Amino acid sequence: MLIAVLLAMGPVATALAQAQKQRPTGATEELLGGLTTAGEVETGDVHARGGGALKRRMGLTSVHVVAVPAANAADPRVRFVEPNGRMQASASASDPAFAQQWALSKIGAPLAWDTTTGTPDVAVAVVDTGVDPQHRDLQGQIRAIAKLSAAPDAIDRNGHGTHTAGVIAAAQNNGIGTSSAAPGTQIIVARALDDSGSGTYADVIEAIDWSVAQGARVLNFSFTGAQSSQALADAVARARAAGVLVVAVSDESD
Questions:
Q1: Dihedral sign for Cα atoms in the order 123, 127, 128, 134
Q2: Beta carbons of 73 and 82 less than 8 angstroms apart
Q3: For residue 148, with 0-12 CB atoms within 10 Å meaning exposed, 13-18 middle and 19 or more buried, which class applies?
Q4: What is the pTM of this model?
Q5: Separation of CA 69 from chain center
Q6: Domain 98-248's class?
Q7: Rg (Cα) of the chain, in Å, rounded?
């Protein structure tokens, strides 16, 4: 369905001049015209004087789609005139589970994908339980990985870190699994939590500093603590001073 969106409400002469510039000489321009009450009564005369031909009315509104071969002079019965531009469907994803990912539509991710799906230059550090490096939706998405916890390695045996990394940057349009908010970005995996999902403040602080050194532009914390910590606050302050965006949950139990 073609939806005409009226964006310009400026002077008629200006809008027509802009429309004239946007089409080849001699071409017929399809315009949207909004008429006053008097213009609605005298529709035929308005279009005839402007050298245009009415193609259709936009429902019950005073907006008409008009074919105009050349720029018109201003008519007081015309409230506005603007090019009838084309709309393109927003970007979507073909991943099998995308239809079930209601949160991506909730935050407007498909609309954002029309502008960008992210860039490898902006790496997101996931300070968590590590990741499953064999996960098919994370292939090619991981820039760096390190173990900063008491766990034996950086492989995620808990599942939380892999899930978090997938929400952020799972590969898109690969025919498997889910999509993500920013599939064009890359992940820096900083394992600070063990297999049970627990870790010390020291491990988290080390993970923060390591991630910043690896070039992270965003730090993601999907965990909570039971106490305040000046050391942790200082680590976060260092990261922010380096231009890193810090994103953290407040309380996942709410």
A1: positive
A2: no
A3: buried
A4: 0.58
A5: 38
A6: alpha beta
A7: 27
Copy the structure tokens of residue 137: 């939706």
pLDDT tens for 176-192 read 677 777 777 899 999 99
9 neighbors 80 (Cβ within 8 angstroms): yes
Using one digit for the tens of pLDDT, what is the confidence trace for 23-80? 434 445 667 677 788 888 888 888 777 777 887 775 555 666 777 765 454 778 787 7
Q: What is the pLDDT of residues 212-233, one digit of tens each?
A: 999 999 999 988 887 778 888 8
- Classify burial at 92, counting beta carbons within 10 Å of its beta carbon; exposed 0-12, middle 13-18, buried 19 or more: middle
Q: CA torsion sign, 72 to 73 to 76 to 79?
A: positive
DSSP secondary structure, 189-233, as one string:
EEE-S-TTS---HHHHHHHHHHHHHTT-SEEEE----SS--HHHH
- The closest alpha carbon to 50, from 13, 18, 23, belongs to 13
Write down the CATH number for the domain with range 12-83: 3.30.70.80
* DSSP one-letter code for 121: T
What does the domain layout of the chain look like in residue ranges? 12-83, 98-248
Report the phi/psi class of residue 175: left, alpha or beta, with left for phi > 0 and alpha for psi in -120 to 50.
Answer: left
- Cα 236 from Cα 211, distance rounded (Å): 11
Strand partners, 144: 188
pLDDT tens for 83-132 read 665 443 334 445 566 566 667 777 787 778 888 877 888 999 999 999 99
Angle CA 156–159–161, to nearest 5 = 70
Those residues whose C-beta lies under 8 Å from the C-beta of residue 3, and which sit 6 or more positions away, are 87
